[in-house]
Structure prediction request, 389 residues.
Amino acid sequence: MNKRIAVKTIALTTLLCFGGALQASETFKIGMILPMTGPFASTGIQIVAAAKLYMAQNGDTVAGRKIELILKDDTSAPDVTKRLAQELVVNDKVSVLAGFGLTPLALAAAPIATQAKVPEVVMAAATSSITQASPYIIRTSFTLPQAAVAMGDWAAKNGIKKAVTLVSDFAPGIDAEKYFKDRMLFNGAQVLDTLRVPMRNPDFAPFLQKVRDLKPDALYVFVPSGAGTALMKQFTERGLDKAGIKLIGTGDVTDDDLLNSIGDVALGAVTTHHYSASHKSDVNQKFVVAFEKANNNLRPNFMAVGGYDGMRVIYEALRATKGNSNGDQLLAAMKGQIFESPRGPMFIDAQTRDVVHNIYIRRVEKVNGQLYNMEFDAIKDVKDPGKNN
Ligand code: PHB
Prediction:
């Protein structure tokens, strides 16, 4: 080898090694934005607890990079989410944005993810269209249409010929209403009315009275995680159960986080969802025991699972890139991941960047003195019906 080439080669090798070493020794930062205070704080508390559990179980170093979780409370205000996302990217130089407790919050951060080319891992929000707001969004929660279509089939085939819907008046509620109604009509059943209640501090009373007067076979509901208690209690207090009206919905209303405090009025409610703390598998059993142990017996809900699986997707992407935190490379390594989650088998569809998983039909039952959503049927590998491909 000629001397000049040899020197150049050594210089280049040194540069590459040094460059690699620099990147490898740098902390890999995950900016997690969640509502930690206010009416949706339970979502933030569950997801942070799950993310911390994942790190405790899997170590805080991946491919030679130390992982740092930077947590920010957006108080469920979209303008705050957007500002925090910007600060995390520009000042803290995070490699991934994560969390997002409500649809408007996930959407507020989307332009930042796109401009900065930083993956946005949506662990909670569940409106179908979210993944279309940025090519850098990956979802590990679920979509409302996945749950709603499953119920539109189950209800119509199980004696519910006339239903009324009652949803929180914002994007995920509208998704739940539309996909449930369309599926009921497709199956030859009827939806007598579609009622929408304010997202914040709803007064259910006038709506439930209307439902009573309409005398449907069932009331189909969606309210966001953390808001189910008032609705479930008033449903019984206003005598809808005695009038023979069944309560059905997405699993958000019989949230594992609240179920025991809702109490026996929840018994018999049938819901469709992707996760129940009572899901029978070794992976889930271990997850629930470890989560409860680390969190003073708090039961993990579907939000926790979205956070736990989201951390898994981030860790495995960084392992696949061998510690490289380039946003496009991380994103590529997130697409197509397939693994067993506490919810069951789970897959990140590379085309849509959305989650594919089983949707379970569950009934609230008492087991050893505690209320659980007991799964009794499953629809396998459900893609988001809101996507056209
Ligand atoms: C949402 O805002 O997308 C959302 C929030 C809470 C849920 C489900 C969806 O339980």
